[in-house]
Amino acid sequence: MYLLAKYYKVPRDPKRTSEKGYILDQENFRWDESVNFVIKPTDKDLRENNVVLDIFGQQMLKCSVADRIGTDFDMVFAYFYKNYQTYFDRIFAAVGIKAVDEQGNEIVPETSGPLPVEHPQQPAAEPNTETISDQTVSP
Known about the structure:
Elements (H helix, E strand, L loop, with lengths): L1 E10 L17 E10 L4 H6 L2 E4 L4 E5 L2 H4 L3 H11 L1 H11 L34 E3 L2 E3 L2
Antiparallel strand pairs: 1-2, 1-3, 3-4, 5-6
């Protein structure tokens, strides 16, 4: 199982991009994160995504945003696990794996029930579509 993450730089206020100097100020932009899970990444996946993690092999195949999320597999995995724990727990449960912390204690999911319909950092009005094991989950 592989995690793919792509980052998009988007203007905070798209209506103001025509203003002189607006695009020169980094404070006028934010980063959007798109995360997908696939069984096997294609060459296109490796080229187009900023982060590619081999979850079960515990390898970081690519991380072009190491300055933002970490420099080794454990740091990068911890970032994504923290932010997408529900998805990871579902994947792990499907293949019979339990997540454990550094001391070997099982990490218990924070909540149980259906997958969240929205990204934890997105307003409910924005659509969210993520590919999980070649199946699309959308609101």
